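With this grant's support, we have settled on a layout for protein records. An illustrative entry appears below exactly as we store it:
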Amino acid sequence: MTSQRTSSDEKPESLESLARQAQQGDTQCLERIAERVREPLRCFLVSRVPHEVDADDLAQETLLRAFDRLDRYDASRPFTTWLFTIGKRLAVNQVLADKRRNARHSEARATATTVVETSFELDIWKRAQALLSAEAYRALWLRYCEDASVKDIAKELGRSTVSTKVMLYRARKRLLAEIQR
């Protein structure tokens, strides 16, 4: 009596066997491989990237890369090890690219902020020059642009320290009132 295997008794083909058949041109094997490894591959990648949606994209990219380079697969080795290595490398590359992209965006934001601040500072100095006396403007410039002490400013302007403090106070107050309008 010969024994016949039923479909429930059949052992599924190994991934390595399917990969060998795919290497020989059987494209249906690629679909069967993808069906069997897509979800485990996605789960593997979820832990390696910051967003789950990235894992879905990377799983798809990994399968595409693997199928594109199937001729490089050594069928004497486990298929999943080869496939997951491709996925892991793609995940590492994506994380590094995201870090570089975020650094560039941060740098661009910092540059934009500096430009805005510089523009604002130039505007303030133009307003101060138009609004204040030459002596008051000079006193503010020395204090805030050249970081001179009140004593040094007083000496340069030929004033007392107290009158220099009063002039700086009044100049700041007047400039602030102008800016807040």
User: Anything to note?
Assistant: The helical segments are 15-23, 27-46, 52-68, 79-131, 134-144, 150-157, 161-179. The longest helix spans residues 79-131.
